[in-house]
Amino acid sequence: MTEKREKTYTFAWEGKDKNGRSAKGEIPSASIALAKAELRKQGINPSKVRKKAASFGTKKKIKPMDIAIFTRQLATMTKAGVPMIQAFDITAEGMDNATMKDLITNIKSDVAGGTSFAQSLHKHPKYFDDLYCNLVNSGEQSGALESLLDRIATYKEKTEALKAKIKKAMNYPIAVTAVAVIVTGILLVKVVPQFEEVFAGFGAELPAFTQIVINLSEAVQKWWLIIVVGIGIGLWSLKRILARSQKARNSFERLQLKIPIIGAILDKSAIARFARTLSTTFAAGVPLVDALDSVAGATGNVVYREAVEQVKEDISSGQQLQFAMRTTGIFPSMAIQMVAIGEESGALDEMLDKVATLYEEEVDNMVDGLTALMEPMIMVVLGTLVGGLIVAMYLPIFQLGSVV
Question: CA torsion, points 381, 383, 388, 389, in degrees to nearest 10?
């Protein structure tokens, strides 16, 4: 039987701290009495505690980049010797996102109450995954939280930058398709019917190409609502299937790697994520076999996830990482050679970091190349569509002389 959680509210408070100075802030709690008790535990003598009014506006979502910014700011302040609790206050104050501010306040309250930083993060799995929490825990246990936070911040920033590039690469084909569909729809619904009225008085059979376009125009005018709803339902169904079925997701991810240009970008980004995650966890002192658990989920593709799981099994049986990677048959020779150098020199984390940087730069260059390629491609696609429809409409006019 699951334990029922108490509803938490946000309370604004004013009072005096341990040194007798005036202070104010916010604290999450189930009631005013519990809020006052929590404040006293933190050495604050509250004079006013009031429940904040509920906001009926749409709450701004916390994005992964918000977590990256929070981590970087926290890493910078703790390295500068700022106490953790004070660092939370400063970081929260600088956040524009009210939801993110509330999250930091909740974490601060837990830490101030005696909970470890890692345990307080575990309470928010939506924003802090196991990798993040485990690295923070390693930092707390080893007494090197400042350097670990710096590594986590770098990892999050690089990962989010890579995700942004992949998103940019995926958006261009979608944009080309969307623009092509919209332009074609407008021409079929608004332009072609005008020509159809003119052709009605010709008294001659229309060319096959023109007749096909007219039939298509009539179908779109008659069934446009069903077509739009059908496309909407189809996209929604696909999204639901991918969200619910692991098998469908795996098939989709395998298919993505086979798409020209896009597949190569996704391939290199998976290698970059593999190297970046493994470098971060290994440098934090996490055993290689345990680190590979986090790496498998971070690659972002089922092909590499299965390959990493195979690598983990091989390493558990005594193989070196370089040989285990080679056995999978999907890692490039460059990455394997650099890992081999890292293993032999005892600087595996540094070499993995270089592998990650190398492939991140390749992804960056490929996305820039795709951007440059897509601009003329859009012109070609639209030119072909518009030109084809114009030719179809003017063919009967070219043949008008034979009718007269």
Answer: 110
- Structure tokens that stand for 297 in this block: 């989920």
List, for residues 164-188, the tens digit of each pLDDT value: 888 877 777 787 778 888 888 888 8
CA dist list (Å): 269 to 41, 187, 262, 349? 48, 39, 11, 18
* Assigned token pair, 380: 């070609």
pLDDT tens-digit series, residues 321-375: 889 999 988 899 999 999 999 988 888 888 998 999 899 889 888 888 887 777 7
Quote the CA–CA distance of 13 and 42 in Å, as a whole number: 13
- What is this structure's pTM? 0.68
CA distances 90 to 73, 108, 118, 132, Å, are: 9, 11, 20, 21
Q: In terms of DSSP bridges, do strands 45-51 and 22-29 run parallel, antiparallel, or are they unpaired?
A: unpaired
Q: Give the whole-angstrom CA distance, residue 256 versus residue 28.
A: 44
Which tokens belong to 397? 């006019």
Spatial CB neighbours of 270, under 8 Å, sequence gap ≥ 6: 299, 300, 301, 303, 304
Categorise residue 63: left if φ over 0, alpha if ψ from -120 to 50, beta otherwise.
beta
The CA distances from residue 151 to 126, 139, 248, in Å, are: 21, 10, 35
Reduced to 3 states (helix: H, G, I; strand: E, B; else coil), residue 49 is strand
